[in-house]
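Margin note: ligand = adenosine-5'-diphosphate.
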Amino acid sequence: AYLVIHPGRTLGVVGESGSGKSTLAQALLGLLPFSGDLQIAGRAWELPVQRNSAANQALRRSVQVVFQDPFSSLSPRLTVEEIVGEGLRVHARQESEAGRRARVEAALADVGLTHAQFPGLLGRYPHEFSGGQRQRIAIARALILEPRLLVLDEPTR
Ligand SMILES: Nc1ncnc2c1ncn2[C@@H]1O[C@H](COP(=O)(O)OP(=O)(O)O)[C@@H](O)[C@H]1O
Ligand SMILES: [Mg+2]
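Resulting structure:
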């Protein structure tokens, strides 16, 4: 059995509880060892021992995830700017502080969160937002790195 996900397309995986949807997502994210062949944009995860190999670093940027539970998936002690900009600090270290901030603001605007709606947006904490708004923050965090593959594990339960 195999599946192929083409660029720009959405693939829905449907199955009852315990059928393995989240397990598949974990494998796509390189978080679980698996047998068989799993390639993303022609690259394969080096699993499970070489978690920080150069190939895995590149893949980690290409594959982003939004989990089901927005309450446990956002660090309560980090500001919105820190949460959404976290990946940029790792993957775009050469970019200026101002440049990163502009990208964080653009990513938040893309998911419908703006200063007009939330004064001081960048300095706010997750508890100041509703569940749906937290999910938008999590989606902005995932999209800011322009991933090849975005994994959504029941993000709107
Ligand atoms: N950490 C784990 N250790 C052992 N078994 C697990 C673990 N996580 C999930 N499972 C089992 O793997 C199967 C698939 O689970 P999961 O991928 O979470 O299903 P789904 O997301 O489709 O509900 C289930 O039988 C579940 O009990
Ligand atoms: Mg699941």
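The chain has one domain: 1-157.
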